[in-house]
């Protein structure tokens, strides 16, 4: 790598680190590109050599955060009990999300269709690729669970939809700052434990017997 490339990468990481600090301290919606540039000691015009807009910074932060999380999940051993590994990954995910509420807010923001439509093609493709990697890990664990006799063979995609929907709810709680007055006596860790058990029960449970096991294509 050339000196110019190294300088470019270091400056880009400085901008991301500075943006993260400002977003956490002042709120990601209110911070401007000019403020990020000033705090980093870089001209505003130089910022646009790295990021075409503040939304591009949002996207990069989310891609980096979710990519690091995925690496952590992949390190969990299956140990002959894939569903136990799945539960450990789910609990690890909840803890990582809980420790990074600002990133969770950005994740939810970046998933909105109108946001994705405004992204440059390369960034949009990066989100699609990362989603496929998450689904691939999910399928890998479930296929191992089938081989181990922990669950019966069934279509994987509907199970992924259910897990994803449950995660969206957990992320909304974290992004919003907690449970408010609805569940004042529930600790987050207790909540996370029960939701993790709920997800695993849903994966094990006989979905087809409820009459909702059939997957139909959209017309």
Structural class of the helix and strand makeup? mainly alpha
Name the shape in a single word. globular
- The CATH topology annotation of the largest domain reads as Tetracycline Repressor, domain 2
Round the mean pLDDT to the nearest integer and report it.
Answer: 89
Low-confidence stretches: 207-219
CATH architecture grouping of the largest domain: Orthogonal Bundle
| Share in helix | over 70%
Distance between the termini: 50 Å
Notes on the structure:
The chain has two domains: 1-51, Homeodomain-like (Arc Repressor Mutant, subunit A, Orthogonal Bundle), CATH 1.10.10; 54-204, Tetracycline Repressor, domain 2 (Orthogonal Bundle), CATH 1.10.357.10. Helix content is 71%, strand content 0%. It has helices spanning 3-26, 33-40, 44-47, 54-74, 82-99, 101-110, 113-118, 121-147, 156-176, 188-204. The radius of gyration is 20 Å and the shape is globular. Residues 207-219 have low confidence and may be disordered.
